[in-house]
Amino acid sequence: MKPLIALPVAIAALMTAQTAFADQVCMSTDEMHAALTDWYAETPVAEPSSTNEQIWASTKNGTWTMVKTFSDGHACVVAQGDDWMQGLSDERVAALVD
Fold first, then answer.
1. Sheet hosting strand 53-57, strand order edge to edge
2. Is residue 29 scored above 70 in pLDDT?
3. What count of Cα atoms within 13 Å lies in the side-chain half-sphere of residue 70?
4. Confidence check: pLDDT of 81 > 50
5. DSSP assignment of 8-68
6. Does 6 score more than 80 pLDDT?
């Protein structure tokens, strides 16, 4: 009976993972950069990390977005939020970017 009980749990987990992936925002890298600049007034905070992740932020509206770029020319939003730099020192920001 254990395999029959485990199967619905595994299917539910896969469906949740697919839903989370489907909600991820991805587009061409050029489109992503234009959207972040035009819609959110965000600019890159630092160069991309060794894993091709880069933080974009806006001091104007306080938003931030972490974007991962891929070699095939597309980029995906990894994380995003508000209150950019609130309570963070320059050293802590540098640690986040590295």
1. 26-28, 74-81, 64-69, 53-57, 43-44
2. yes
3. 10
4. yes
5. HHHHHHHHHHHHHHHT--EEEHHHHHHHHHHHH--EESS---TTSEEEEE-TTT--EEEEE
6. no
Tokens 């977005």: give the residue. 65
2: CB partners within 8 A, 6+ apart: none
Q: 52 Cβ partners below 8 Å, 6+ apart?
A: 68, 69, 70
Coil, helix or strand at residue 82: coil
Above 70 in pLDDT, residue 95? no
State the residue for tokens 């160069």: 47
Query: What separation in angstroms does the CA of 12 have from each of 18, 19, 20, 21, 47?
Result: 10, 11, 12, 14, 39
